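Please complete every field before forwarding. Incomplete forms are returned to the sender.

SECTION A: IDENTIFIERS
Entry label: holo-456
Bound molecule: pyridoxal-5'-phosphate
Molecule representation: SMILES string

SECTION B: INPUTS
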Amino acid sequence: MRNYPPEPFRIKVVEPVKMTSQAEREEEIIRAGYNTFLIQSEQVYIDLLTDSGTTAMSDAQWGAMMQGDEAYAGSKNFYQLERAVQEVYGFKYVVPTHQGRGAENILSRIMIKPGDYVPGNMYFTTTRYHQEANGGKFVDVVIDEAHDSQFDHPFKGNIDIAKLEMLVAEVGAEKIPYICLATTVNLAGGQPVSMQNMREVKDFAAKHGIKIFQDATRCMENAYFIKKREPGYGNKSIKDIVREMMSYADGCTMSGKKDCLVNIGGFLALNDTDLYVKACELVVVFEGMPSYGGMAGRDMAAMARGIFEAIDYPYLEHRVEQVRYLGDRLIAAGIPIVLPVGGHAVYLDAKRFLPHLAQDEFPAQTLAAHLYIESGVRSMERGIISAGRDENGNHRYPKLELVRLTIPRRVYTYAHMDVVADAVIALYTKRETIRGLRFTYEAPSLRFFTARFELI
Ligand SMILES: *Cc1c(COP(=O)(O)O)cnc(C)c1O
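SECTION C: PREDICTED COMPLEX
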């Protein structure tokens, strides 16, 4: 019996993928130095490296692309995008950017002074970078449960109000320009924030005169979890839920490459007129005119359309439940994964998958490489290699040593998910035979992108 929602689309265009042999994949992984970032995409059968910018656009989006108005100023596609954001998110002003980090750059520059603190429910790499580059200090205020890979909690992305209170008591509210509230929390595994928590954060922030900006990258997936899990929301539309979520914030940064269903683009949305004027001054310098901000007219047209497609319930249900389907198959086979399964990815717990490897034999990197050899499935290491070295040159040893299987939106079928699950299960049955890796090349920073390895 089928226990998953079927695809709410039919396939009009296909992109053939190469079916490689195990011998070909062994050759490719050696060429790539056992680093999945260095594998050529053409040699990949199912690409689960990321859900960012890997979405399949709809026929309506491709149709909109042909109606790009590439005027330098005042493109009609900007006004379409502005109306879509105003209607679905409910913010007054929209500043388009080339992707999410462009919006983070502008927001951080207009809001943060040296010596400020920016609390957030776990960090994201580029978000924290821009906060700290402007003299702010990121403070993690996510609930403790988010750091425990086995703790099953329906809203594991929630903010701990007691942690906010402690921060205010310690540094003073005037040193906190805004709270950065991510929906969902990427680095916790795509875990959602409850509406009740957003309301409590808003009450707290209002009391202390602190603003709230959402990192709304996966806000539609967050809204889906609220509809399914939070009392009182089962009969509300996704649009109403998103509008309510955003009503507790002063604005948001958005990576269109995730929940706007496009391959490139982003925006900053705001309600405050003074902040909008400042944002427009900066967007001209870093991105482009306030009516295109680093995007072509056609890209804004596709994003305007994608914003409406993303709040369509059958789309969202299929998207999130497809991820859960993969997670459920792995759980049923006894594979150690992060719980509960989040909105965009399933994370394998490599420490428990390969317990015979020490962490400095790189269990997650090893597992990602072997999954590719086994099946042509590409995944990403999120463990000791990504964590890098400390100021003394020693490895940082993160608690979590994970392999991320990130599902692109509308790209793969349930049969593809079965291929992934079968491959992971096959590897698990022969896990004792898997040897670890050692470096043959290591870059001084962001080593995970370019590092090369050999088998021990
Ligand atoms: C991807 C992402 C960003 C940055 O967006 P880009 O479009 O990649 O610049 C910010 N926050 C989160 C949580 C993300 O996943």
